[in-house]
Amino acid sequence: MSGFLLEYLPILIVFGIATVLSLLFLVAAKIMAPASGDVEKLSTYECGFNAFDDSRMKFDVQFYLVAILFIIFDLEIAFLFPYAVSLDKVGIYGWAVVMIFLSELIWGLYYAWKKGALDWQ
Amino acid sequence: MANVINFILPFLPELLLAFFASQLLVFGVVKKERTDLVRWIAIGLLVVFALAGLFVGVPGTTAFNGALINDDFSYIAKAIIGLAAAAALLFSESYLKSERLDQYEFSVLVLYAVLGMSIMVSSNSLLSLYIGIEMQSLALYVLAAFNRDSLRASEAGLKYFVLGALSSGLLLYGISMVYGFTGSLTFDTIGAVVSSGDVSPGVIAGMVFMLCGLGFKISAAPFHMWTPDVYEGSPTPVTGFFASAPKFAAMALIARVLMDPFMGIQDSWQQVIIVLSVASMIVGVFGALMQTNIKRLMAYSSIANMGYALVALSAGTVAGVNGMLIFMSIYLITSIGLFACILQMRIRDGMVEQISDVAGLSTTQPRLALMFTVLLFSLMGMPPLLGFFGKISAFYPAIDAGLTWLVVVALIASVVGAFYYLRIIKTIWFEEQDRQFVKPATALSVLSGVSTLILVAVLFLPFISAPVKTAFGAAAASLF
Amino acid sequence: MITAIAFYLLAAVSVASAFMVIASRNPVHSVMFLILTFFSAAGLFILMGAEFLALLLIMVYVGAVAVLFLFVVMMLEVDFVALKQGFLQYIGLGATVAVVLLTELILVGAAYFAGDGNTATPPNPDESNLEAFGHVLYTDYAFFFEASGFILLVAMIGAIVLTLRERDGVRKQDISKQIARTREDAVEMVDLKSGEGIGS
Q1: How many domains does chain A have?
Q2: Do C144 and B128 touch (CB under 8 A)?
Q3: Hey, which of B16, B254, B261, C61 has its CA 20 to 30 A from A61?
């Protein structure tokens, strides 16, 4: 069990380094940078006016479509990971199955493409 | 080669449906402006698909390592689902055109929904059950919100989606419990474990969760909350589709799940089904009393009718499944006819859907008024019409199984329900005319006429009804 | 020992960040804490030896779903502060539901351990579960695999049908049109006499 977990030691070390490094920068900035903020300095600055609006605004629905299409193809890729390591075991049958799966989604891609869903308007 | 053919043949209709649906998707996007052609091809495909199983099917085969099973039950169910979906496509045409919604994806989505339903009714493992339901519901969510510029349709789609996702979660939770406690996903193995006697409470809890999830799909109370809003908000032909094929598929799926893997714990599921059934009948008939919108009324009516169908299932016998099949088929015919009539309620400014709008229909359009009346009488269960025999075949098995009190409740519900059907009929015949409907599309008149004729005439034509009865009996028997 | 420490650490982080998802005032912070929850759950999966599930969790949930959440949080332009005003009103109902769910889970767990308690053993302990997954997914479970492909296809159609709209007045680049352009329809040769111009 621990032998298996030992394989993840590099990832843990990377995490450790990343945490230490980012904390270091934060702390360093806190200590070294001059900071004397007051309410006016920290408030949103909009060309001399008070802020008109929240910083959140309506995105175009196109972003949403792109995100959804991304998720769908992301899931498709997730289905293909096991194929990469079991290619030698599943043989020609598994190959055919994966090709049918891919063709289903290529059909979808073709539809999206022709429909213009991938064009930015 | 012969091996491959034997492997594919039992599910050739499904494979062809999947293949041609994808082809249509691409064909439609390449050849724009050919929406009608796509629709007619889709209707043809559905009819072929419906009849294929009945004529060339090999009952008793399983495919894909036991994921799917073909028996008389699944053939009958697929035939009814395919024909109902074809009818829904047929009556959608004029509506979609006049509401400027005529996109060819509508037909393609209906095809995928039917593909999901056919996986549902022939599923032989918990995984294919879930995948079938998901494929079906995903297509239906989109159909509900198909009129995306309408606030009500978007709301309907969103509500349906959120509650549908919740029900899928319940279903999946139940499935995982059943899998965990029986150690198998296939119905045969689960059935063997369950009927071996020593059933752990986990299996029963999982079964109850699964029934709750499936109860959402047939809109049985107390899981009915989405139905009125979704029925009212969705485009009317989509509502007509919702009221027919998906209900039948989910009901058939419940029958298979109860009679196949969970037959050994009949005592446990019988209580759940009885609770669902009584609650649906009460909510359905009393909710309908107050409605003024005819689509909302149909929603409550469908809730009540699901309650009647569950009365038949609660018997847990061959006769019960047979009664459920007969009742549901007659209900499907009636509701397709009724929605074809509702779609004819069009004045010059657009669709109207209030009950008061049918006032005086008997003088302006006597034919439509007559069809409306016959369909409503049949839904009520008036004796000479087919609906009466549907209710008889649904209630008798329950009496034989010793559930007389349940049948009494169902009869009382029918009597109360008759009130709001009669109210519409009274509005049609005895109130002053105030609307002038425009001339309906041919497809609508034909559909409503055909279903009216079936309801009136089939009883007098034993050479039609006898073989159908035999086929349903064989279908019900094949589950046990 | 280390496994136990790692488990308690990850479990504590996931529970705490799950709490912060609903407790934090800023919705963007909520999404960030959600990502942290997914992340620690992925760590728990790895501790159980289910590295494929951990990979999926990171890739699909952290990589894609959380991004979509951020989009929605940004896009909806909902006043989340006002939305959270009634939070305490529902705490009773929410707590009831939570307690019921917890009881059910405990009951199920108890029933499981009170039974014979047999757990599934992997058929071949030497291979990683990614490989084990691949061996059955493309053979025994091929049907489910293909059917999921169709579900993804339906999802794609649905997303496009519901959100894509043709806009007027958009100048799009049409590459095939550009390439199909020939010298003949692009260039006009005119013989000019001196002093007359191209007046037509």
Answers
A1: 1
A2: yes
A3: C61
